[in-house]
């Protein structure tokens, strides 16, 4: 005997239930969800490569290897010197640079090979990143698997990767002319800043693709608008501090004043404006550049703590956690910066500080993303997605 039916239940003449099962997730219908996962994996790979690229770039700078290759050959330069004659030619070209003539004039061929491999490795990684992007983008595009609205975003990342290669050579070229023995600090800052912009776009894409489009649309209705604004400000503030850190590294300002909290026993370092014209001090005066980096660091921590306190009132536990982690990491990064100064920017401490900048940048982006798209949670606050 058939079970009881609701008076609203539709049946055919034979008494068969005609109700259709509910269709959910139509916005991710078909292969769209699978495509999102595949593209996310591709962006994760690019993200990891860019992280390695930034760290290798930092080591290239710290080992003063950036000017060891004096020309840009996108294809031919992929291969390193393979014979004694090739090495002799590469070394001869380096011997014509101001850095060799004024600083490294006693360098041997074996010593040159050390700095050459750092710079070659940095450039080779750049080529690998470009190849991974081109292969992935063209593959997804040809297969028609790029979700709606993502083609331009993914293309923009590729364009920025290409621009970054050009900026890298523009930076290196500044150290190969006149009597310069290093690259221009402002060009180094632009180069590093653009690397973090690319890293940020990749991270944001990974975060968005970690959820379905339907989940994102639902989460946006719960947006913590004020916290999202604070997260945006914190993001820009953090990027500014990273760029200022690149200015410090560009002129070795971190090794100029190794006391803290004072600088040479003073609040303001001596002779902060002794370079003419005045504007050059903000890029080339070690005392002033480091002082600005310190002050902005203090202000960044204050901003992060304000955002943390404001986040205490957020309904989502994930949002509260995001801003807590961001504040903790930024404070730890400031402490690490102080340790770096006290150790005269020793190589291992300095590269750890740069790795800390990457971590700080990512956790700030995660906090902002969670404020913009709070993860779903149960009434009891459990079951949240990361």
Helix and strand arrangement:
Layout lengths: L31 H31 L21 H11 L3 H5 L6 H34 L8 H23 L11 H25 L3 H8 L4 H26 L30 H4 L1 H26 L5 H26 L4 H26 L14
Helix pairs in contact: 1-4, 1-6, 1-12, 4-5, 5-6, 6-8, 6-12, 8-10, 8-12, 10-11, 11-12
Q: Describe it for me?
A:
- Helix 1 (32-62) packs antiparallel against helix 12 and helix 11 (317-342) runs antiparallel to helix 12 (347-372).
- This protein starts with 31 loop residues before the first helix and ends in a 14-residue tail after the last helix.
- The protein has 2 domains: 31-210, no CATH class; 214-386, no CATH class.
- The longest helix is centred in the N-terminal third of the chain and has 34 residues, at 109-142.
- It is flat and about 65 Å long.
- By secondary structure, it is mainly α.
- Mean pLDDT is 88; it is low at 1-31 and 379-383.
- It is built from 12 helices and no strands.
Query: Biggest β-sheet, characterized?
Result: none
Q: Count every helix, treating DSSP H or I runs of 4 or more residues as helices.
A: 12
Tell me the count of domains.
2
Q: Give the SSE order as H and E letters.
A: HHHHHHHHHHHH
What spatial form do the alpha-carbon principal axes imply? Answer: flat
How many β-strand runs?
A: 0
Integer average pLDDT: 88
**What helical percentage do the residues reach?**
55-70%
The separation of the N and C termini measures 49 Å
At a glance:
By secondary structure, this protein is mostly helical. The protein has 12 helices and no strands.
Task: Describe this protein with a few key phrases.
63% helix, HemeA_Synthase_type2, metal-binding, 386 residues, cell membrane, membrane, transmembrane, single chain, 12 helices, disordered N terminus, mainly alpha
């Amino acid at each position: 005997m058939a079970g009881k039916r609701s008076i609203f239940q539709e049946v055919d003449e034979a008494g068969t239930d005609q109700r259709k099962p509910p269709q959910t997730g139509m916005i991710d219908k078909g292969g769209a969800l699978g495509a999102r996962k595949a593209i996310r994996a591709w962006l994760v790979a690019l993200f990891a490569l860019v992280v390695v690229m930034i760290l290798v770039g930092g080591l290239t700078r710290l080992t003063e290897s950036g000017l060891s290759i004096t020309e840009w050959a996108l294809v031919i330069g992929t291969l390193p010197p393979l014979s004694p004659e090739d090495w002799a030619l590469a070394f001869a070209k380096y011997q014509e640079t101001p850095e060799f003539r004024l600083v490294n004039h006693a360098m041997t061929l074996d010593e040159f090979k050390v700095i050459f491999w750092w710079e070659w490795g940095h450039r080779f990684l750049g080529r690998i990143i470009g190849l991974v992007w081109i292969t992935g983008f063209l593959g997804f595009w040809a297969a028609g698997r790029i979700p709606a609205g993502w083609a331009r975003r993914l293309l923009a990342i590729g364009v920025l990767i290409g621009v970054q290669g050009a900026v890298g050579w523009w930076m290196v070229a500044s150290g190969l002319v006149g009597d310069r023995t290093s690259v221009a600090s402002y060009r180094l800052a632009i180069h590093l800043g653009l690397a973090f912009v690319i890293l940020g776009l990749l991270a944001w894409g990974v975060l968005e693709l970690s959820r379905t489009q339907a989940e994102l649309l639902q989460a946006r209705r719960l947006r913590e608008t004020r916290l999202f604004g604070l997260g945006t400000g914190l993001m820009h503030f953090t990027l500014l501090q990273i760029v200022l850190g690149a200015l410090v590294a560009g002129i070795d300002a971190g090794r100029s004043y190794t006391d803290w909290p004072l600088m040479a026993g003073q609040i303001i370092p001596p002779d902060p404006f002794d370079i003419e014209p005045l504007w050059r001090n903000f890029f080339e005066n070690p005392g002033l550049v480091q002082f600005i980096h310190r002050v902005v660091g203090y202000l960044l921590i204050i901003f992060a703590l304000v955002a943390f306190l404001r986040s205490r009132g957020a309904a989502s536990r994930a949002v509260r956690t995001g801003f807590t982690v961001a504040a903790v990491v930024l404070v730890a990064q400031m402490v690490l910066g102080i340790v770096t100064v006290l150790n005269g920017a020793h190589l291992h401490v300095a590269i750890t500080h740069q790795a800390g900048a990457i971590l700080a940048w990512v956790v700030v982006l995660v906090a902002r993303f969670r404020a913009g798209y709070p993860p779903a949670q149960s009434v009891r606050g459990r079951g949240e997605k990361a």
